[in-house]
Amino acid sequence: MKKITKLFITALSFILIISLLPFSVLAEGGMGSETPFIQAVFTDENGETAEGDFLTAGDYTVDLTLSGIAAVSFFELTAEYTDDITITSVSTIGEDKGFKCGGIKNEDNSFVVILASTGENNTPISDGEVMITMQVTVNNEGDFANFFVVDEEPELTFVGSSYEEGFKAAYVCLSVPATEDYYPYLSYDMSPDLSVKTITVTGTITISENRSGSVGSKGVGGIKVYLGEEEVAESAADGSFTAVVPKGTTELIVKGDTTVERTVTLSGENDLTDVNIPIIICNYVVDGKIDYRDAGAFVDNLPATADYYVYADLNGDKIVNYLDAGVFVDFVSDSTVEYDSLSLD
Fold it and tell me: What whole-number distance in Å separates Cα of residue 310 and Cα of residue 315?
């Protein structure tokens, strides 16, 4: 622990006092089987949770939380920070929760905090326990992880689970190779993106008026929208739909019981409104071609008025008659349907 003693003489004295306490059996949980995780949580001036991957200029409370471990004997975190932030104050978990602060360094862009359990061997903690709280002013907007860089040296950033075992019960950063002295299972995230990033696509699925799918004005219900294998929307009777998909989604598949499946593209970066997706609805045998077999199924629905078959209503007037038959003829071909490419952006 030479590096620690060089940084904090007072902390060393505190550690020596702690080491004189009687030891108890290590708390249950299996030393070496845990995966401690340090995460920064940001709260802005308005009390709202902020995302660490892009902080605007202003004042924040930054809580450094610890999860994935049942009990802690020692906790140390060391970092360097840039002039993009100013750390105005630092506080730590207190004696009321079973910890003493062995030292804080926050100067010359260096940051170090040492904490020690006041228990005989360790102190149990809750998942997500706040170990360190910083008051931070962000001077230049950006990613906090670029401003506050954790030192991954084993003796500078670690979580111990047993006074009795010392560094043989210490968890260190994942990038450190496993040795007989450490468990390399400690990880951290100094700039979590806490939001679920989604985009919303709204519009109408319409009855295609031609084989290319370039024109459609009448909405049709019961057509489903898929993201891969996952159904994300189904059109209402008027053809309207709303699909909420992860940001970055670039393809959606549109299909129904009697359609020629259609793939549409989008950039995946922005919400989309009032989109129109024409789709062919008279592929009754669902083979990608509109031929004599589909014609037979269509004729079976002629004439129909009151209980008409919605997917035979090719002009959307809620009647299946000779007008739809005229439209149907335009779709008939031995070749497979090929839609025009359709980008929703």
Answer: 10
Residue 299's H or E segment, with its range, is: helix 292-299
- Name the residue among 27, 40, 6, 4 with its Cα closest to residue 73: 27
Cα(291)–Cα(296) distance, integer angstroms: 9
Per-residue HEC secondary structure of 91-154 comes to: EECCHHHCEEEEEEEEECCEEEEEEEECCCCCEECCCCEEEEEEEEEECCCECHHHHEEECCCC
Phi/psi of residue 326, nearest 5 degrees: -65, -40
Q: What is the pLDDT of residues 268-283, one digit of tens each?
A: 988 999 999 999 999 9
Beta pairing partners, 277: 205
Length of the chain in residues, anyone?
345
Query: 283-292: per-residue pLDDT in tens?
Result: 999 999 999 9
The conformation of residue 4, written as its DSSP 8-state character, comes to H
Instruction: Return d(Cα 24, Cα 33) in angstroms, integer.
Output: 19
- Residue 71: CB partners within 8 Å, gap ≥ 6? 27, 29, 117, 122, 123, 124, 125, 161
Residue 252 and residue 264 in contact, taking contact as beta carbons nearer than 8 Å:
yes
pTM of the model: 0.56
Q: How many CB atoms lie within 10 A of CB 88?
A: 11
Q: How far apart are CA 10 and CA 73, in angstroms?
A: 18
Nearest alpha-carbon partner for 240 in 203, 275, 293, 207: 203
What DSSP letter does each residue of 16-29 carry, written as one string?
HHHHTSPP-PPPSS
As a whole number of Å, the CA-based R_g of the chain is 32
